[in-house]
UniProtKB/TrEMBL annotation:
GO cellular component, one term: cytoplasm
CDD domains, per the entry: Trp-synth_B
Homology family: Belongs to the TrpB family.
The protein's name: Tryptophan synthase beta chain
UniProt key word Signal: no
This protein's UniProt keywords: Amino-acid biosynthesis, Aromatic amino acid biosynthesis, Lyase, Pyridoxal phosphate, Tryptophan biosynthesis
InterPro entries: Trp_synth_b_CS, Trp_synth_beta, Trp_synth_beta/beta-like, TrpB-like_PALP, TrpB-like_PALP_sf
Annotated positions of the N6-(pyridoxal phosphate)lysine modification: 96
Cofactors: pyridoxal 5'-phosphate
Pathway assigned to this chain's UniProt record: Amino-acid biosynthesis; L-tryptophan biosynthesis; L-tryptophan from chorismate: step 5/5
EC code(s) of this entry: 4.2.1.20
Keyword presence, 4Fe-4S: no
Species the sequence originates in: Dissulfurispira thermophila
Domain Tryptophan synthase beta chain-like PALP: 61-385
Lineage, broadest ranks: Bacteria, Pseudomonadati, Nitrospirota, Thermodesulfovibrionia, Thermodesulfovibrionales
Designated gene of the protein: trpB_2
Amino acid sequence: MQKIKIIRKLPDKNGYFGQYGGRFIPETLMPALQELEEAYSKTKKDISFQNELKHLQETYIGRPTPLYFAKRLTRHLGGAKIYLKREDLAHTGAHKINNALGQALLAKKMGKKRLIAETGAGQHGVATATGAALVGLECEIYMGSEDVQRQSLNVFRMKLLGANVNEVNIGSKTLKDAINEALRDWTTNVRNTHYVMGTVFGPHPFPMLVRDFQSVIGREAKKQILKIEGKLPDYLIACVGGGSNAMGLFYEFLYDNVKMIGVEAGGKGIESGEHAARFAGGSIGVFQGCKSYLLQDDNGNVLGTHSVSAGLDYASIGPEHPYLRDIKRVQYTYATDKEALSAFELLSKTEGIIPALESAHAIAEAVKLAQSLPKHKIIIVNLSGRGDKDVQQVARIKGIEL
């Protein structure tokens, strides 16, 4: 239990979770990160800021999101009871809005005129564009050209919300390249621009800041399950790309006797090399501002990744996750593209809920686990986003022309 108490005090003053985290950035960005850390520290104690955020969470985002008992899916699997934390019902259709809105308010308070962000599946780009529109800031989004093609609907949504979308045509043309371009923009325009990091990754204080804005998910889920079942769940399950929805759910339960499982993208299988399962095939390295687990070769070159889900197709993972894995507080596994697509269809047919392909990875793990558990056990799955954005891609995979 002593270890768990230490967890809640992390990161340390230098931004580390054990050996992971820190700040590995160009010198020109150091003042901006120090300014951000100081501003965030003040807003945590600023009652007017917290009241404004809470008011918008309730009246704009639509919080609290429901905790839904998936009765038909549970019956179909014949094991543990499965509850879904419905982040797909939050405004803009994913948990990303919790963090993007918080950072937009913070940037406004810091006197910034412009927001920039990277995005993979597009949900963080949509959420940032939404936050910028709400508080009246300019918005610029960076997105890999492969993801632009996979998520064209979200690109159009960002433009409707007033954002300028920059297509990144270098490297693997996915999320890691979009982050590189966003960091270059920030280095050039740091005086008037805030970079809205979309997940619990990057240089300190971003992993802490994003985790804190997302932890509303776990606080709500704990209250809701205690009210419904009169006890805590036995398991929490969440998908892990950068890892913000998982940290958002897990953080409130770190002190409790609850097992937690993070699900990475197994792609076409670990043996194929075409995946994004950092714990199954990665090693410790420094990437895009922090030290964490990373898919890299023996010379430290970042490897290409693959996932059917654009939001999980990333070479590294937020630094708090490997720390929680090292101390055996959270278990990490993976689901393949095939398993995620099967879960995508199963939840759609049994519950009338089309999940995001990211969330379908968590559902795939719940399918495996629930069948092995007795009926009195309880699983909460974080349904991090809705699947509207993925319908066209799934149709293409199935050979159906819409």
